[in-house]
């Protein structure tokens, strides 16, 4: 019996033309060879198993060939080519940086570089997995990489380009290898089974291509395994079994049950799949890919993205027509969430079943938002959580007068400030008046918004304002719940004084005796509905009140439900006069006063041309 050689080695491409799926790179390399424009350092990046090392070897062989063809390929016949094929050439050095990543390994390599080849033109150094080199090994390599001898060519290969130092990247010509497409893999596999006289169903080869995810080495090793396992006959069934792939038929069946909201059968089917040895996470990721495939089949233009074997293609397209896009997108979301949570879920089986239950009732939820077969963005599940302003429960239950007429009073509208900001008043400060506010209604913001309170005063003169409220509700009611604004009460001295005295007690309790004393003797006076004054006996007392301003205001606002209320602190006039005049004037003021009283002083200053320094 002949020695078995794995397909990946046996059918390793021998020239650029047979490299699968990397024509963008092989063409460039061939042109560079023909035009003698070869760089001295290359970096080959890309996923594993896509032909990086193979291309490096072909390049090494081709540039040493003594009889390069017109297409830029090696002749495979000259001495150099044959020694390369036997693996006996001295002009190729391969270093696996994953296991030889120290500075010493690189120094050994650099030492070798100095010697010219005995036969052939170039010595080619292939450094595989170059990202594994240590930082110091990289640095030891830099100088040689930048100015190598004319006979040396470096080919660095990596799967992780982002780990390569920029100083290395800038010294290399970079080639990015692509993942091999499913079609390319299938064609290559077909070529090989033709040569090996193996019978295979195309579906089975497509399954292998799908499973290998663009890695030709994996595809070939899977092929080898199944060939030996199935006695040289590849069928769809035995490939599925061997690759442990869940047949898509199960997903079509599951989706059918879910769309019909047949939860019983859906659960039973999941159990059946489970019995076959497919774990919950595999089922969910398989179902996600399946739904993704349906989604791309919705549009014929994107159907090329379908990742499945050709045999299912028609069924995908016909099923996609029956299932709505919102359902598919929402189902993907649910599965994605469930997959993320799967690892932390304690009861894995229940976790997957929950996802299935959600998918089962998802159809129902979405149907309700379909109108005339038009896709409506809002789904029922979302509609339960609309964005809405926070509702404030009003203190009183007085509701808005429903019979209010819709008359909009334009000038008044401009005064409206629904923000009700305490820091700024929408109208100019009214002139302080000693008359209690009860008899005089100032049309402040609060007043207008709270005019819903049908008090006697308002009924007398607030008629249009009530209409304004109704109009505002009509206009903004959908966005802002004006009804929910708390009703404010007009300032009244009794309540204010009570609140003030209570605060004094709190100050006392907090051992702020000086402040408490000031609060107790302070005189309150209401100016209008949102403004009052506090009269104290001394400048120091003013400071005590000022310190407590915000705290006391918070309480007042709370009691009167009006955040526009402010107060001024007045100091009694007698207090100011107690201070001796000379203590309140600065030097300049003193001089001015003296000069005013004694004109001779200013005359003297003028005559002698004196300067006064204050
Ligand atoms: Zn040759």
Q: What topology does this entry show?
A:
Elements (H helix, E strand, L loop, with lengths): L6 H4 L12 H12 L6 E5 L6 H13 L14 H8 L5 E5 L6 H11 L9 E6 L6 H12 L5 E7 L7 H4 L3 E4 L5 H15 L2 E2 L1 H11 L3 H14 L3 E2 L1 H8 L4 H12 L3 H13 L4 H18 L15 H10 L2 H18 L5 H20 L12 H4 L26 H6 L29 H5 L6 H6 L1 H14 L16 H17 L3 H9 L1 E6 L2 E6 L2 H9 L1 H12 L5 E6 L1 H6 L2 H4 L2 H11 L1 H9 L7
Parallel strand pairs: 1-4, 1-5, 2-3, 3-4, 6-7, 9-10
Antiparallel strand pairs: 8-9
Helix pairs in contact: 5-6, 8-9, 9-10, 9-11, 12-13, 13-17, 14-15, 14-16, 16-17, 23-24, 23-26, 24-25, 29-30
Bound molecules: zinc ion.
Question: Can you describe this structure?
Answer:
With 614 residues, the chain is α/β, with parallel strands linked by helices. The chain has 4 domains: 7-176, 3-Layer(aba) Sandwich (Rossmann fold), CATH 3.40.50; 182-243, Helicase, Ruva Protein, domain 3 (Orthogonal Bundle); 248-383, Up-down Bundle (Zinc Finger, Delta Prime, domain 3), CATH 1.20.272.10; 410-484, no CATH class. Helix content is 51%, strand content 8%. The chain is built from 30 helices and 10 strands. The chain has helices at residues 7-10, 23-34, 52-64, 79-86, 103-113, 135-146, 166-169, 182-196, 202-212, 216-229, 236-243, 248-259, 263-275, 280-297, 313-322, 325-342, 348-367, 380-383, 410-415, 445-449, 456-461, 463-476, 493-509, 513-521, 539-547, 549-560, 573-578, 581-584, 587-597, 599-607, and strands at residues 41-45, 92-96, 123-128, 152-158, 173-176, 199-200, 233-234, 523-528, 531-536, 566-571. The strands form 3 sheets. The chain has a 5-stranded parallel beta sheet, covered by helices on one side. The protein has a 3-stranded mixed beta sheet with strand order 8-9-10. Helix 6 links the parallel strand 3 (123-128) and strand 4 (152-158). Helix 12 packs antiparallel against helix 13 (263-275) and helix 24 crosses helix 25. It starts with 6 loop residues before the first helix and ends in a 7-residue tail after the last helix. 29% of the residues are buried. Mean pLDDT is 80; it is low at 379-389 and 398-463. Residues 65-67, 74-75, 77-78, 80-81 line the site of zinc ion (ZN).
């Amino acid at each position: 019996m002949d020695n078995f050689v794995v397909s990946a080695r046996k059918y390793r491409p021998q020239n650029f033309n047979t490299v699968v799926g990397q024509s963008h790179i092989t063409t460039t390399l061939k042109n560079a060879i023909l035009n003698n424009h070869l760089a001295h350092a290359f970096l080959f990046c890309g996923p594993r198993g896509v032909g990086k090392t193979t291309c490096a070897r072909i390049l090494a062989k081709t540039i040493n060939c003594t009889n390069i063809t017109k297409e830029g390929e090696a002749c495979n016949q000259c001495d150099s080519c044959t020694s390369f094929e036997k693996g006996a050439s001295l002009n190729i050095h391969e270093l696996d940086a994953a296991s030889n990543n120290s500075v010493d390994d690189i120094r050994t390599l650099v030492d070798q570089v100095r010697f010219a080849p005995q036969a052939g033109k170039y010595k080619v150094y292939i450094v595989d997995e170059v990202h594994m080199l240590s930082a110091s090994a990289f640095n030891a390599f830099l100088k040689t990489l930048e100015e190598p001898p004319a006979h040396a060519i470096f080919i660095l290969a990596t799967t992780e380009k982002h780990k390569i130092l920029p100083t290395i990247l800038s010294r290399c010509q970079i080639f990015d290898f692509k993942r091999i497409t499913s079609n390319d893999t299938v064609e290559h596999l077909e070529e090989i089974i033709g040569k090996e006289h193996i019978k295979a169903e195309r579906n089975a080869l497509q399954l292998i291509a799908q499973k290998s995810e663009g890695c030709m080495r994996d595809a070939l090793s899977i092929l080898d395994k199944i060939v030996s396992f199935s006695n040289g006959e590849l069928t769809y069934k035995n490939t599925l079994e061997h690759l442990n792939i869940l047949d898509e038929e199960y997903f079509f069946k599951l989706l059918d049950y879910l769309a019909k909201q047949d939860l019983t059968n859906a659960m039973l089917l999941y159990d059946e799949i489970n019995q076959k040895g497919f774990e919950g996470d595999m089922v969910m990721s398989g179902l996600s890919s399946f739904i993704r495939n349906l989604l791309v089949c919705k549009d014929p233009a994107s159907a090329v993205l379908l990742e499945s074997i050709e045999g299912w293609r028609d069924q995908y397209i016909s099923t996609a027509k029956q299932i709505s896009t919102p359902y598919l997108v929402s189902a993907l979301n649910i599965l994605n969430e469930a997959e993320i949570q799967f690892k932390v879920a304690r009861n894995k089986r229940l976790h997957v079943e929950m996802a299935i239950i959600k998918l089962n009732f998802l159809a129902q939820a979405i149907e309700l938002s379909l109108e005339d077969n038009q896709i409506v963005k809002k789904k029922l599940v979302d509609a339960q959580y609309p964005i809405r302003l926070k509702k404030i429960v009003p203190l009183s239950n007085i509701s808005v007068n429903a019979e209010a007429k819709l008359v909009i009073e334009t000038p008044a509208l401009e005064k409206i400030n629904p923000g009700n900001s305490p820091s700024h008043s929408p109208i100019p400060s009214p002139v302080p008046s000693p008359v209690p506010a009860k008899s005089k209604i100032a049309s402040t913001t609060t007043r207008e918004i709270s005019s819903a309170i049908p008090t006697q005063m308002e009924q007398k003169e607030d008629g249009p304002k009530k209409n304004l409220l109704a109009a505002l509700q009509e206009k903004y009611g959908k966005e802002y719940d004006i009804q929910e604004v708390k009703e404010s009460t007009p300032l009244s001295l009794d309540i204010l004084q009570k609140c003030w005295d209570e605060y004094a007690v709190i100050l006392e309790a907090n051992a702020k005796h000086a402040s408490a004393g000031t609060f107790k003797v302070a005189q309150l006076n209401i100016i209008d509905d949102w403004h009052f004054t506090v009269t104290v006996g001394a400048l120091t007392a003013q400071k005590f009140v000022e310190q407590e301003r915000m705290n006391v205001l918070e309480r007042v606002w709370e009691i009167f439900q009006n955040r526009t209320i402010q107060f001024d602190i007045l100091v009694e006039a007698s207090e100011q006069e107690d201070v001796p005049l000379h203590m309140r004037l600065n030097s300049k003021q003193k001089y001015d006063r003296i000069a005013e009283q004694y004109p001779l002083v200013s005359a003297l200053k003028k005559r002698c041309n004196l300067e006064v320094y204050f």
